Amino acid sequence: MANKKENNSVLAPVNVIWEGILLIPISGTIDSKRAQGIMETILKKIIETKSKSIIMDVLGVVTVDSAVANHLIKITKATKLLGARCIVSGIVPEIAQIIVALGVDLGEVDTRADIADALELAFEVAGLEVVKRK
Amino acid sequence: MKNKKKRVEISEEVNIVEAASEAMIFAQIAGFTRVGQHMVATAVSELARNIYLYAMKGEVTIRVLERKTNKGIQIVAEDNGPGIADIGAAMKEHFSTSDGLGLGLPGVKRLMDEFRIDTKPGVGTKITVRKWV
Amino acid sequence: MEKEITLSKVGIHVTRDCLVVPIQVELHDELVTQIQEDILRRVKGEQLKGVVIDLSGVAILDSVLARGVFDTAQMTSLLGARTVITGLSAGVVASLIDLDFEPGNVPIALTLDEGLQTLEPYVKPKEEPEEAEEPEEEID
User: Fold this and answer.
1) Global pTM?
2) What is the ipTM of this complex?
3) What CATH class does A2-126 carry?
4) Residue B49 at interface with chain C, using a CB cutoff of 8 Å
5) CB of C1 within 8 Å of any CB in chain B?
6) What is the domain count for chain B?
7) What is the pLDDT of residues A87-108, one digit of tens each?
């Protein structure tokens, strides 16, 4: 049992990649218990760091079916209840096809192809701009 | 510790939060995280509320469970109320307690790990739920 | 008499032109209704434009109680005021999500202070006063 918990935190570490912006790379399989654990970790971290943007990268997730999609949607709804915004990145063309074919409504969830794009959106939300030094 | 249990009678509105608070304490004893404790308390609140609203009187029994590898909590909410005529409809997604249309049972089921309902119209209802740490 | 009891229990006060409602007791249906009435009465009576309902002192919040609180926010907006809800814990959020709770458009912030900050643009007095106005004083 202890191993399971360790695995959870190893496979979904929460990084503060910028002030107010969290990055959670998720890999492997997501069942409801794991999704629950990830959600709990994210919520606690948002409160702790007062973060407003949460980037959930799912590139490493093995299968994205409707159950997994619903877990992800649940997490994004939860972050909204804390006044934060979730951006799901790592959506590759095949996954996009599956999600649409399954009829899963991602509705208000922001998605991006990769972390860089998600970060750009997070900066926008935070009102930040990256400027080259002179 | 193994047989620690508590019975809360539900007949007044304040009993709802009483039952939920007791459940939260028991959940803490069982070793749930703060988040887990709250989920247990909320499930109990919803179940107790149903008893109060529809059966007017009933009871909630809270018990800590112990397995070899794990601890958990069990809640039994029972009443001699009208019973649920159509369980299928009651378990359908769009009936929630907060919009006043239903019993919120799908939500309670999601909050817990195990869910069992025994009901007979005209006789009463008994809902047993369990959650493991 | 009952209204006074609610106020003293819940400690509603005005800070920075906002009605601050710090709830430190366990909620139940009747109390939520009383709080709702108190808030609406004060918003109307004192022409307040902002309200912060802080739930950090609430240990248990189920779907019906949450609905009562969030509905209050919708009601104040009908009176021309904006309500921010603050202090939701991870446990409350996780539970409300499983109960399929819909927060609607109600603004949410993490802390009471953040809530007051987000309300600032809404409660600031207009730039062009019709008559000479006293400068705003910090109320602590």
Assistant:
1) 0.87
2) 0.88
3) alpha beta
4) yes
5) no
6) 1
7) 999 988 888 888 888 888 877 7
Q: Which residues contact A55 (CB under 8 A, 6 or more apart)?
A: A17, A21, A22, A23, A24, A86, A87, A89, A115, A118, A119, A122
> What fold is seen in the domain C2-118?
Transcription Regulator spoIIAA (3.30.750)
> Between B and C, how many residue pairs show a Cβ–Cβ distance under 8 A?
81
Do residue A44 and residue C88 have CB atoms under 8 angstroms apart? no
Helix (H/G/I), strand (E/B), else coil: C28: coil
- The pLDDT score that the predictor gives to residue B65 is 95
Is A1's CB within 8 Å of B33's CB?
no
CATH classification of the domain holding B95: 3.30.565.10
Q: What is the 3-state secondary structure (H, E, C) of B2-15?
A: CCCEEEEEECCHHH
How far is the C-alpha of C92 from the C-alpha of C90, rounded, in Å?
Answer: 6
Q: Can you give the pLDDT at residue B86?
A: 86
Residues of chain A contacting residue C108, judged by C-beta atoms under 8 Å apart: 80-83
In B, minimum Cα distance to C67 occurs at B98
pLDDT digits (tens, 9 = 90+) for C44-87: 999 999 999 999 999 999 999 999 999 999 999 999 999 999 99
